[in-house]
# Entry
Amino acid sequence: MKGMTPRRFSRLGYAVGMVLAVTGWTTGGVCAQNGGYTPQHYYRLVGVGEVAVAPNGAYVAFTVTTVVEADNRRHREIWLQPLSGGRPAGEAFPVTATNEESSGPRWSPDGSLLAFTSTRSGDPNPVWFLRMDRPAGEAFHIEGVDGPPVWSPDGSQIAFVKAPEGDDEPEEGDGPAERRGWIAPDAVSRTLDAERFDGRVITSLRYKRDGSLSFQPHYLTQNKRQIMLADADGGEPRQLTRLSFNAGAPVWSEDGRVIFFTGNDREDDELNSENTGDIWAVDTRGGAVRRLTSNPGTESAPALSPDGRTIAFLSTPARGSQTDLLLAELGPDGHFRGEPRNLTGDWDLRPGSPSWTADGGAVVFSAGIEGDSHLFRAQEGLPVEQVTDGARRLSSFSFSVDGSVMAFTATDAVTPAELYLGSPDGSTEQKVTGFNDDWLARVTMMPAEELVWTSDDGTEVQGWVVKPVGFAEGGSYPMILKIHGGPHSAYGNTFFPTFHVLSAAGFFVLYTNPRGSSGYGHDFQYATRGEWGIVDREDYLSGVDAAIAAYPQIDPTRLGVAGGSYGGFMTNWLTATEPERFHAAVTSRSITNWESWWGTSDAQRLTEYEFYGTPWEQRDLYRRLSPISYVENVVAPTLIIHSEQDYRTPVADAEQWFMSLMKLGVPVELVRYPRSSHGLSRTGEPWLLVDRLERIRSWFVHYLIDQRPRSTP
# Structure
């Protein structure tokens, strides 16, 4: 295999060194002392996120998510880490009630108030405040503020986004109030008795949304979110906008006279396939709403410079086009002065939401790069600069107003996310929390080793290999190829429980970023357009060959393949088009038939762009790229995992694959998870998520270890 380069990550020593330093591991004898990661370890995982540094640098607020195994749920609290001189001053502690769910920490400009969201029984207002400038007291409401607060620069006013309350009484003939929106107001058909009819009448494409188990009410029955304004001391809020579309992401001008926000005035045009989101402005004294950007293209994530004279924002001209970071000068009334300037025109990655450095001289943002995620800095006249480094993924960056404190979360291949502090220039950093350290010290997890190879057409592809726990040079082991979803997401240096469950069970795990993955440039990301399963198949198969050549302990007669979403499609595709290569499969939330998927999913625009049209415009392509067209070739025993309320890749595709394999006599099982959506493997009920891990493990153990595969024809 030409171009094959097995090696550890160039900065792998950093990630592993951090784990060894924190846990006290030694490199000798670990496997003999500690067992590997099992599905039950998921219940021990603690998640850290939503980092918010106080403007004055006195605290870092962040959320801590734990799993309450007995109750089959997750629990989220807000914690505080006191700071002194940009360094931890004492231990972090929870600041919200331990018996309530809390999230979304936000600070007032002077750091005297911490706001958060918590839905508490019997209280209709989910927005709470804590005083931070005096001894801790009870959380309280500010009268009139019932949306996540955005303070004016002087702290005297609070803007928030909320749908104004309307008349909850249904129209005559619409049935009970609890069914409001079930019957489309523009429906032509009628019922004889609305009290007896408890079904739905649908005229909107958006009647279902993955992640919401119940169907959505018709959009014409829902009020749009508007910009609301209230005094910071409380009082009756004032509705600042009266728009026919939803407003979002409010940002104050430096003098408090203008609020910038995002919105799409064509959001209810369900046949609109263009990017039409814009940045808008409204005078806080009640002036007219003004559109600041123009279509085509979607502009988002506005951020004002410290002096209030320049606005940074993201712009994506069309689906599949490069997203860039633009700057525009602002006039006194908030209008753009001159044409926006592009800071990332010569940079091929995708920038995240921008924020300004304290001196206003540069804009910083996070971005994915070759399996990692880091902080970048852009300023006019200079190339984009990477600020942080390491074989890891950093996220949730937050900064103090004076720029002296930076906080973020970091994860790598063997460590869940924890809180870090660092200097904004990336020169120093310190791990602050260790919620997972104790249980990690008693679990053996093999580090990821980078594997780079070249496909037949010369494309370089990056992947990673995790060895089995207890690996011996003279051993022989099966291998699982894991395939990511998206298709334009990416694997990399972050903690994936599935990989470690399989490693502990005795498998090599190969996970890769073939063409179609993000973090390698725009052309690489969209190289698969119109050729899903064709272009990337070559990268997967050459990656399997590269792994076998680099690790002779891999048994090529015991290869498994698994993936979810697009990875489930690709699992089906590979077992149908390369039946001799893979000897067992697990396909999760998969697609088998692009035509039926298009008609049942909540994301039709995905294939309309990627396949150059609808099924009737590209009938041959939809059918040619559907695994069901080749299902008669499948011989690999296949476990099918699907959520019953998955509206992104509906369960009908799993049923088609199951029915076909049953008729063909291929060993197959279908596991249907109730009360679950597309995100089961990430955010599903803990009991179901852990059950899923064990079924994947046990399926592959049975067919690739306990029962050696029969030779394929």
